[in-house]
């Protein structure tokens, strides 16, 4: 910002007067030199700072700082820190959120490098200037100027007013900075523009939503394609090439950036095996391979090429709490215990209208209607939890639920719960978790099995149930 400076002539005159002894004072012992007053632009002088991101710094901020310290060439080389990256990140995000070209971020970061070394200075070192841009009190309140988002937008507003019709896109970066800041040192901006560009290049991907189907590369050399918002990492260049990305461009991102994204593709993502062109839709951790007519009926949605090994990690049946919608008739089913239940509109409303995935009827038809033994269902209206086993249910007391390990239930309509009987079907095996005794169900009765009897039957799987439930079933 503006500073009142002695002219070169005045400084020269004072030098002559001192050297000639024309300015004299009483003789006394030499005193220590006073501590220099820090300037806002100093890069390595302690001063009071305010946080830039209210949530603090992130591991990615630290990683980017390390990366930049080895690539920057001007003032900030070796001086980037997680804090300074967090400040730059907030400024760049303000540009991104306004939909402006990244060049606006380069202009803003160039300014903060010169004015404050990308520090959010909270003490008035230069008149009443504060913040990343050293904005005077006439710009706004103290809190506003120390808010990086507000300060960046105030800077951008003035930049746009000085350069209407996107004139800032073609003007020299240093000139734009000077037009906004009206600094006493106009020549200091342009030399920092190249490093500002490097900073923006490193941080812009951190605040931008990843682009579907785009390749991203970390400094370690790891390359991933984004599918359903998640990074799918390639194990080798051979795998990348086999997936159809040979020679494709990639976007460089800081170390650890891939880990900041969700690690599994969202429901409704379409994954394509480049080897045979087969497309699978993903829902609830399961896949369904689409026929060409099914893919066409779904509107020929875009798919992302991924390694076949990823597609093979998905099972056939969605996890509990997944909602599938028959795209042909709009009917919605809920999944619990590898089984489906068709919902009425009223039931779907009661469950809170959860998100669903449009799928072909073929996906829905391959899912049965009988939950696996040991499925826990919850009536969302009363919060009652039921254990289902062998086509029967048992309403659990709170203590029973605790004793069973507090298993996670799935919210379902009471109408589905009411379809279950009281006693499991023949061939069901129940286990008392207290003493490990096992019972076989036959014709609505239970029979306690010895170890030898259970072993002779092939050691069939059993389901832990409360003793109170066992006591409701008559003995053989």
Question: Care to describe what's here?
Answer:
- This protein is an alpha/beta fold and 476 residues long.
- The protein folds into four domains: 59-207, no CATH class; 215-260, no CATH class; 270-365, no CATH class; 375-471, no CATH class.
- The protein is 31% helix and 16% strand.
- It has 17 helices and 20 strands.
- A four-stranded mixed sheet has the order 3-2-1-4, covered by helices on one side. The chain has a four-stranded mixed sheet with strand order 7-6-5-8. It has a four-stranded mixed sheet with strand order 11-10-9-12.
- Helix 3 (82-97) packs antiparallel against helix 4 (102-116), helix 4 packs across helix 8 (193-207) and helix 6 (148-162) packs across helix 7.
- The chain starts with 7 loop residues before the first helix and ends in a 5-residue tail after the last helix.
- Mean pLDDT is 90; it is low at 1-36.
């Amino acid at each position: 910002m503006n500073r009142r400076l002695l002219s070169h002539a005045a400084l020269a005159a004072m030098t002559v007067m001192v050297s000639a002894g024309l300015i004299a004072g009483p003789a006394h012992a030499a005193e220590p030199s006073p501590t220099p007053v820090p300037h806002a632009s100093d890069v390595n002088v302690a001063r009071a700072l305010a946080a830039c991101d209210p949530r603090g710094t992130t591991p990615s901020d630290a990683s980017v700082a390390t990366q930049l310290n080895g690539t920057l060439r001007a003032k900030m080389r070796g001086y980037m820190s997680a804090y300074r990256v967090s400040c730059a990140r907030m400024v760049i995000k303000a540009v991104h959120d306004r939909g402006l070209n990244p060049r606006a971020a380069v202009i803003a970061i160039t300014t903060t490098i010169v004015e404050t070394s990308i520090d959010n200075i909270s003490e008035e070192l230069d008149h009443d200037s504060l913040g990343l841009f050293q904005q005077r009190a006439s710009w706004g309140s103290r809190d506003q100027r120390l808010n990086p988002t507000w300060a960046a937008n105030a800077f951008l507003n003035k930049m746009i007013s000085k350069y209407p019709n996107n004139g800032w896109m073609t003007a020299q970066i240093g000139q734009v900075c000077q037009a906004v800041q009206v600094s006493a040192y106009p020549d200091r901006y342009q030399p920092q523009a190249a490093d500002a560009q490097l900073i923006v290049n490193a941080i812009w991907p951190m605040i931008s939503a990843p682009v579907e189907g785009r390749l991203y590369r970390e400094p370690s050399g790891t390359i991933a394609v984004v599918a359903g918002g998640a990074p799918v990492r390639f194990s080798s260049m051979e795998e990348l090439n086999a997936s159809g990305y040979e020679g494709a461009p990639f976007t460089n991102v800081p170390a650890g950036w891939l880990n900041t994204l969700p690690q599994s593709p969202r429901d409704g993502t379409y994954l394509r095996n480049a080897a045979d062109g087969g497309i699978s839709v993903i829902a609830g951790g399961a896949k369904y391979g689409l026929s060409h007519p099914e893919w066409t009926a779904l509107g020929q949605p875009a798919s992302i090429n991924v390694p076949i090994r990823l597609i093979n990690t998905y099972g056939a049946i969605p996890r509990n709490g997944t909602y599938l919608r028959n795209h042909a008739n709009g009917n919605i089913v809920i999944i619990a215990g590898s089984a489906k239940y068709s919902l009425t509109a009223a039931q779907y409303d009661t469950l809170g209208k959860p998100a669903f995935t449009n799928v072909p009827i073929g996906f829905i038809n391959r899912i049965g209607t009988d939950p696996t033994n040991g499925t826990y269902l919850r009536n969302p209206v009363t919060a009652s939890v039921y254990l289902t086993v062998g086509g029967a249910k048992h309403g659990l007391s709170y203590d029973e639920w605790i004793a069973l390990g507090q298993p996670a239930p799935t919210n379902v309509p009471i109408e589905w719960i009411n379809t279950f009987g009281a006693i499991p079907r023949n061939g069901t095996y129940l286990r008392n978790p207290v003493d490990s005794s096992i019972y076989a169900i036959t014709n609505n009765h239970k029979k306690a099995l010895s170890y030898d009897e259970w072993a002779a039957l092939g050691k069939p799987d059993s389901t832990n149930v409360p003793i109170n439930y066992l006591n409701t079933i008559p003995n053989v």
